[in-house]
Write a structure and sequence with these properties.
heterodimer, A: about 200 residues, alpha+beta, 4-stranded antiparallel β-sheet, 4-stranded mixed β-sheet, B: about 290 residues, mainly beta, 9-stranded antiparallel β-sheet
């Protein structure tokens, strides 16, 4: 467990041909492969670090929480959030690498329109469902197969959007769970379905 | 009145319901209101000519001298509204899709572009730009970052420290953009921040353009020995690359944009890290 291979790949990618994009294709492929491999290994380290950081057991000998990240979120591929059987609740931990408090908007792909979001204090927060567009689904289908070699299962139907706040160089937790409708049904839910208009 | 206003917060955009084009951007928070048009165009890449055999390639940006071709004059709109975010979806062509997002508490618009695969079956390499055209008297001046740090003043067709002979009116005015660029006319600032390294320029006063994707058919003979024409394949079917990224647009009173450019720039470069775990709230809190 280390970030060394990512460091090595970053080091190689400082070559002027890598920086400017003037390497031959097979060399570019090699840069990409090394960065991808290094990034995957670093992700394991970060997940473990987050698990230690968020655990009350500061010894952190055997972290109880398994985290996963979604590196293809830009094309709506995120297995932990798409799975309709994500159980009673999905825990989202956010880490802020900057030295000031931030509020931002999170978008995650989901299949279910009966979801609600709560903050770490258990309070429902406002969320919005946006239907996934065709351009993203087509991109997802093609690139998931090209990059991961797997046929993408049924696409997610929505983006779930909500606002988060995270302290400086710190973390916060949000809970996404089933049982409240996007029409606002469900006790305390603040979930909204977007409206769509296509002007002629 | 033929316009559609979007944005759930103080930062808003107006689009024409006739052409689908962006008309203006305004912020009620800062009182800035700028008429702006936005479009996608492509420069045809030079493969060399009688005067100079230099082709456009991985190292060299050399358009063929013709004005850039507009991808479309009008574009269908789809508007999605909600309490947190409004979105405007626009299909500029079969290979250019754009989503403009305006969030409730943000001082900017987030513009997500999806470009590709760039068609080259007409035998022309293409270098695709997005262009923002504002009615601002900028007197040949624009500002670009220096490796993500201070914004430096650039003057079109001019270098302070030598006598510039302009042989490439477009490429000769392109600068590397790692963080962003902006225009200023003494009254307002129009700023753009990027999520990746691109090229950018202001070829005409009041206009700002950034290059988002390139697909070329000739080698520029500078050493790489290949045309910039990468493909990606699924089974035996290969196609040119598609790029997806985001640029951020803000308007501010003159002299007030630096605060946004510096803080938003940091937040783009260092986004929040998301990690998911399947657990119940009770188990999570217990541990």
């Amino acid at each position: 467990l280390s970030t060394t291979s990512l460091g090595d790949a970053m080091g190689l990618a400082q070559h002027h041909d890598a920086v400017s994009g003037t390497a031959k294709q097979h060399t570019t492929n090699d840069y990409a492969k090394r960065l991808s491999s290094g990034s995957s290994k670093a992700e394991i380290v970060v997940n473990l670090a987050l698990s230690c950081l968020t655990s009350s057991n500061k010894q952190c000998a055997s972290p109880s929480t398994n985290f996963t990240q979604c590196n293809l979120l830009n094309i709506s591929y995120c297995p932990p959030t798409e799975d309709e059987s994500f159980g009673e609740s999905l825990v989202l931990v956010l880490y802020n690498p900057l030295g000031w408090a931030r509020t931002d908007f999170i978008r995650i792909p989901v299949n279910d329109d009966q979801l609600s979001v709560r903050d770490s204090g258990g309070n429902f927060i406002e969320s919005q469902l946006v239907e996934l567009d065709n351009a993203t689904s087509n991109l997802r289908k093609f690139y998931v197969e090209a990059y991961l070699g797997i046929s993408s299962k049924e696409k997610p139907k929505y983006w779930l959007v909500f606002q988060v706040s995270v302290p400086p160089l710190g973390w916060n937790t949000y809970f996404i769970s089933k049982g409240a409708g996007a029409d606002g049904t469900g006790t305390g839910s603040k979930s909204h379905m977007s409206t769509t208009a296509t002007p002629e | 009145n033929g316009t559609i206003e979007v944005g759930p917060g103080p930062f808003k955009m107006s689009f024409s319901s006739v052409s689908g084009q962006l008309i203006r951007v305004f912020s009620s928070k800062t009182g800035t209101d700028i008429p702006i048009q936005q479009s996608y165009l492509w420069y045809g890449s030079s493969t060399g000519d009688a005067a100079d055999a230099q082709a456009s390639g991985a190292y060299i940006f050399r358009p063929n001298g013709a004005p850039p071709t507009a991808v479309s004059r009008s574009v269908p709109l789809k508007i999605i509204r909600g309490p947190l975010v409004d979105e405007v979806h626009q299909q500029f062509s079969s290979w250019i899709y754009q989503i403009t997002r305006l969030y409730k508490d943000k001082d900017h618009a987030e513009i997500e572009f999806t470009i590709g695969p760039i068609p080259t079956d007409d035998g022309v390499g293409k270098e695709v730009i997005t262009r923002l055209t504002a009615n601002m008297a900028t007197n040949k001046i624009f500002y670009t970052d220096s490796n993500g740090r201070d914004f430096l003043k650039r003057v079109r067709d001019y270098r302070e420290d030598w006598n510039l002979q302009v042989t490439q009116p477009v490429a000769g005015n392109y600068y590397p953009i790692n963080l962003g660029m902006y225009l200023e006319d003494g009254k307002s600032e129009l700023s753009v921040l990027v999520d990746r390294a691109v090229g950018g320029s202001s070829i005409q006063d009041g206009e700002l353009e950034i290059m988002l994707h390139r697909r070329l058919l000739a080698d520029d003979s500078r050493g790489v020995g290949e045309a910039l024409d990468e493909t990606v394949c699924v089974k035996d079917a290969c196609q040119g690359l598609t790029t997806r990224g985001i640029y951020y647009l803000s308007v501010n009173p003159s002299g007030n944009g630096a605060q946004w450019r510096r803080t938003a720039g940091q937040e783009i470069y260092s986004p929040l890290l998301l990690a998911f775990s399947h657990q119940t709230e009770e188990v999570w809190k217990a541990s």
